[in-house]
């Protein structure tokens, strides 16, 4: 039908195809990634690029492979004994599945925030310095600086600066999640993986985390798995739609949520299935 | 289990309200030309009075659409369905206003015989009605072929408009005492020509609805 008449303006297209978006560096390049849990083929021929200083959202119905994919990015998936993979995930040009690539080295660069806030049963202060201590930092002055910087980065400093020695369990759910983000920032990662980081939070805490993500992307590259499609639309630059272990569509978020190419994407984002 | 059944029902209600407004405008436009042809002042007054119904329906559509956006947070084609309904409602409401304008011209002309038979005006009107009716079914069926055919008909209305205005200008040179009526008849032509343009807009909205891109069908 498009041959009937020519589009009026290309303006709308140029918004969707912002040249600046394409010019960015790639943090991750996933090439023909396949992943099996035993005989279950959970990820099929995934090709996906993650760009620097962007928020990439991963959406899709339960069991589509989105959490599996994000856990592959920091090799957490290897903790599942029956996992096999083929293909490559390159982080900054190096294949993370390469035997010579130390998993500790990777995880220093790639932090993760989980669905449920999972602070350690320690003080707020100790939660933040846990990672840096493991990395050998002992100087109290340096650790203090890290705590302040990380908590400020996670937009939590003002709320907790007077009670850093209190137990982290005394914080609200939203504060605990931001503490987990602060703990992640303390090791100065390059990438932050977020697996449904707001699904256990109330709406205001959710919006705070969303605001935070917008600030953090100036310094970090963020990949977020979310079931909240309005959240993906609000905070991400690009969105990948996963279905049955495949990437059905990966494009600028504006395009995905206004005029997706694939009928399955449209059906999913408009809530017709899933 | 079907999901978003309630939302689909609500979208159907919105579509129904829009079609109601469309059929109201069709009827008003028909009656306005009937009143013009028969010098029927009473009918003209009735058309003017009834226009509040179009305005009420128009407001209802807007309110309902805004409520749907707030409640359902639609995206992609769902959002376009609602936005396009608001836009089409605006075009149709304007067409209903043209029927009122024609009724006003009818009242100004009064019982005075027409300077010439209003054949071209009736032809323009007939095409406008077909366009409006087809555009409503094109909208209802999301049928781009039909929407395009509707837009193409606009050229016929434009041609008739050009011819009629030339005719009326000529008569105004010959019968200067009848210029007031000739002016009113020219206005009527202009209203019909504009009504056809608004129907063409409806076709463009249907293209946007289906394709998610802006198209210009006015060329």
From TrEMBL, chain A:
It comes from the Bacteria. PANTHER family: ABC TRANSPORTER I FAMILY MEMBER 17. This is Phosphate ABC transporter ATP-binding protein. Keywords: ATP-binding, Nucleotide-binding, Transport. PROSITE patterns: ABC_TRANSPORTER_1 (PS00211), ABC_TRANSPORTER_2 (PS50893). Gene3D superfamilies: P-loop containing nucleotide triphosphate hydrolases. The keyword Metal-binding does not apply. Signal peptide: none annotated. Residues 28-269 form the ABC transporter domain. CDD domains: ABC_PstB_phosphate_transporter (cd03260). One of its GO terms (molecular function) is ATP binding.
UniProtKB/TrEMBL annotation, chain B:
The gene is phoU. The lineage of its organism: Bacteria, Bacillati, Bacillota, Bacilli, Bacillales. Pfam families: PhoU. It comes from Cytobacillus stercorigallinarum. The keyword Cytoplasm applies. The keyword Protein biosynthesis does not apply. Homodimer. This is Phosphate-specific transport system accessory protein PhoU. Residues 19-105, 121-205 form the PhoU domain. Its main location: cytoplasm.
């Amino acid at each position: 039908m498009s041959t009937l008449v020519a589009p009026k303006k290309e303006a709308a297209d140029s918004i969707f195809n912002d040249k600046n978006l394409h010019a960015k560096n790639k943090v991750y390049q996933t090439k023909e990634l396949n992943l099996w849990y035993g005989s279950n083929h959970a990820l099929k021929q995934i090709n996906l690029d993650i760009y620097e200083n962007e928020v990439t959202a991963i959406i899709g119905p339960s069991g589509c492979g989105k959490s599996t994919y994000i856990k592959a990015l920091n090799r957490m998936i290897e903790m599942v004994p029956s996992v096999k993979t083929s293909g490559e995930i390159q982080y900054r040009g190096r294949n993370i599945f390469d035997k010579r690539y130390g998993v500790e080295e990777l995880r220093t660069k790639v932090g993760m925030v989980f669905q449920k806030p999972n602070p350690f049963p320690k003080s707020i202060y100790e939660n933040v310095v846990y990672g840096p201590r493991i990395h050998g930092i002992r100087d109290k002055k340096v650790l203090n600086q890290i705590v302040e910087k990380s908590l400020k980065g996670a937009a939590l400093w003002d709320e907790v600066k007077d009670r850093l020695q209190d137990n982290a369990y005394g914080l609200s759910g939203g504060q605990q999640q931001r503490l987990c983000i602060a703990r992640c920032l303390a090791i100065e990662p390059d990438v932050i993986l977020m697996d449904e980081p707001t699904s256990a939070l109330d709406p205001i805490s959710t919006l705070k985390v969303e605001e935070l993500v917008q600030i953090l992307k100036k310094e970090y590259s963020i990949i977020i798995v979310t079931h909240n499609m309005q959240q993906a639309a609000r905070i991400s630059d690009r969105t990948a739609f996963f279905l049955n272990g495949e990437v059905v569509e990966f494009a600028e978020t504006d395009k995905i949520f206004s005029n997706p190419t694939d009928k399955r994407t449209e059906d999913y984002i408009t809530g017709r299935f899933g | 289990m079907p999901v978003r059944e309630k939302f689909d029902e609500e979208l159907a209600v919105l579509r129904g309200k829009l079609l109601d407004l469309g059929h109201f405008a069709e009827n008003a436009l028909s009656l306005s030309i009937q009143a013009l042809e028969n010098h029927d002042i009473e009918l003209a007054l009735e058309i003017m009075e009834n226009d509040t119904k179009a305005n009420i329906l128009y407001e209802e559509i807007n309110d309902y659409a805004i409520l749907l956006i707030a409640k359902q947070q639609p995206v992609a084609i769902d959002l376009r369905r609602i936005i396009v309904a608001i836009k089409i409602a605006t075009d149709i409401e304007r067409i209903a206003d043209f029927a009122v304008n024609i009724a006003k011209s009818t009242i100004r002309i009064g019982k005075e015989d027409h300077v010439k038979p209003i054949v071209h005006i009736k032809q323009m009107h007939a095409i406008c009605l077909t366009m409006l009716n087809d555009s409503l079914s094109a909208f209802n069926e999301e049928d781009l072929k039909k929407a395009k055919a509707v837009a193409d008909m606009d050229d016929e209305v434009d041609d008739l408009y050009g011819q009629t205005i030339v005719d009326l200008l000529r008569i105004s040179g010959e019968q200067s005492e009848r210029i007031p009526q000739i002016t009113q008849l020219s206005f009527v032509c202009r209203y019909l020509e504009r009504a056809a343009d608004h129907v063409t807009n409806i076709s463009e909205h249907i293209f946007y609805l289906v394709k998610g891109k802006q198209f210009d069908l006015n060329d």
